[in-house]
Design brief:
This protein is an alpha/beta fold. It folds into two domains: 5-160 and 302-337, Isopropylmalate Dehydrogenase (3-Layer(aba) Sandwich); 164-287, Isopropylmalate Dehydrogenase. Helix content is 38%, strand content 17%. The chain has 13 helices and twelve strands. It has helices at 18-30, 34-38, 51-61, 108-123, 137-142, 150-158, 183-189, 192-208, 235-249, 260-263, 266-269, 280-291, 326-337, and strands at 5-10, 43-49, 67-70, 87-91, 129-132, 164-168, 173-176, 216-220, 253-258, 274-277, 296-300, 306-309. A twelve-stranded mixed β-sheet has the order 3-4-2-1-5-12-11-6-7-10-8-9, with helices on both faces. α4 crosses α6. The radius of gyration is 21 Å and the shape is globular. The two termini are 29 Å apart. Bound molecules: 1,4-dihydronicotinamide adenine dinucleotide and ligand LD2JLWAY. 1,4-dihydronicotinamide adenine dinucleotide (NAI) is lined by residues 17, 134-138, 150, 297, 308-309, 311-314, 316-317, 323-324. Its cofactor is Zn(2+); Mg(2+); Co(2+). It is an enzyme of class 1 (oxidoreductase). It catalyses: 4-(phosphooxy)-L-threonine + NAD(+) = 3-amino-2-oxopropyl phosphate + CO2 + NADH.
């Protein structure tokens, strides 16, 4: 019998709902039917958090925490199964006391240390993947660290040339060409080279990681009405169309550039395996309208498995027992069955 696969679950911004989600998820797991628990027999979930933060949050939520403390790589060898009721926790030092809902830039180091530990463990193949609870990008920047998201952080940490953010529900997959950029910078960031790299990663991931032999991808235009024949912007003509044509010349089912306003209608979406949107707020509002709280955010193109929840820190819900765990379940399930992409 092979070793169980360990997923590292980073709890993100300590003043947000990340710690709550880890605790609530573990509690919900214990309430599953034993047949449903069985799916997780070969998986261990290691929570990365500060011990005091997690214990205080457990008290606030009235959740009985049975921690199994881990602080060395060696200790990973004997993690208890989820069904034991113990929650394996790797405790990291935190810089300042935490009040739920109250951000403190002093704790940005702690948040980044969790990400680094999880990424290191993945790169060294100690972890089968990392699942991230939300961080607050603003407070990390307030601490003087240039940080735009997990996606970009992990791209840099792993030395990946290009990565792709994709959010997926059971019914819809939406990937992005650009991620966390001011709208003003989006058009300039969309080059033929970038679009080609993003499409390559998306196409290969759908084949390898989702087992779709010949993916059909719908690609949004950038401008209203996909540029209206060049009258409302020419990025479609100059950049997007030539790249898509090279894929079509290879027999690949890449459709577009399509006007984004009607691309997301049932008729157009029918039979598509993924949508490629040009920027964050072109694709994600639709995905979240369709399945907020049930989607996973998956970073494609990394040499490791990384999934995440589809929502943010929801500071106002921290410590109140009102955070929903649906997206964390989806993110954990996705990471449990995924294998890294092989280029
Ligand atoms: N993966 C990550 O690390 C992400 C981090 N963020 C960060 O989160 C911060 C707050 O972002 P917002 O735009 O306010 O989005 P948000 O997702 O935190 O909140 C939006 C709305 O959804 C609700 N909500 C979010 N998660 C919920 C859950 N699990 N259960 C029930 N209700 C939930 C909130 O109460 C709020 O009404 C920002 O700093 C942003 O950068 C945002 C998205 C993803
Ligand atoms: N809207 C998704 C988001 O902001 C998550 O970004 P990341 O932290 O996963 O890069």
């Amino acid at each position: 019998m092979s070793q169980p696969a360990i997923l590292a679950l980073t709890t993100g911004e300590p003043a947000g709902i990340g710690p709550d989600l880890a605790l609530q998820w573990m509690q919900e797991y214990q309430q599953l039917e034993s047949t449903e628990q069985t799916q997780w027999d070969h998986t261990r979930v290691l929570v990365l958090a500060n011990a005091d933060v997690l214990q205080a949050r457990a008290r606030q939520l009235g959740i009985g925490l049975k921690p199994y403390w881990v602080n060395t790589w060696q200790a990973l060898e004997n993690l208890p199964p989820l069904s034991s009721g113990y929650l394996p926790v790797w405790s990291l030092p935190i810089q300042a006391p935490v009040m739920p809902g109250e951000l403190n830039p002093a704790n940005a180091t702690y948040v980044l240390d969790m990400l680094t530990l999880a990424a290191q463990g993945c790169m060294e193949k100690r972890f089968a993947g990392m699942v991230t609870a939300p961080v607050h990008k603003g407070v990390i920047n307030d601490a003087g660290v240039d940080f735009s998201g997990h996606t970009e952080f992990l791209q840099m940490y792993t030395g990946s040339r290009q990565v792709v953010m994709m959010l997926a529900t059971a019914r819809l997959r939406v990937a992005l060409v650009t991620t966390h950029l001011p709208l003003r910078a989006v058009a300039d960031a969309i080059t033929q080279e970038k679009l080609q790299q993003v499409l390559e990663i998306l196409y290969t991931s759908l084949q390898q990681q989702w087992g779709i032999a010949q993916p059909k991808i719908l690609v949004c235009g950038l401008n209203p009405h996909a540029g209206e024949g060049g009258h409302l912007g020419d990025e479609e003509i100059q950049i997007i169309e030539p790249v898509l044509q090279t894929y079509r010349d290879q027999g690949k089912n890449i459709v577009g550039p399509l006007p984004a306003d009607t691309l997301f209608t049932e008729k157009v979406l029918h039979g598509a395996d993924a949508v490629l949107a040009m920027y964050h707020d072109q694709g994600l509002p639709v995905l979240k309208h369709q399945g907020f709280g049930q989607a996973a955010n998956i970073t494609l193109g990394l040499p490791i498995v990384r999934t995440s929840v589809d929502h943010g820190t929801a500071l106002e819900l921290a410590g109140r027992g009102q955070a929903h765990t649906g997206s964390l379940w989806t993110a954990l399930q996705a990471a449990r069955v995924m294998r890294p992409l092989i280029f």
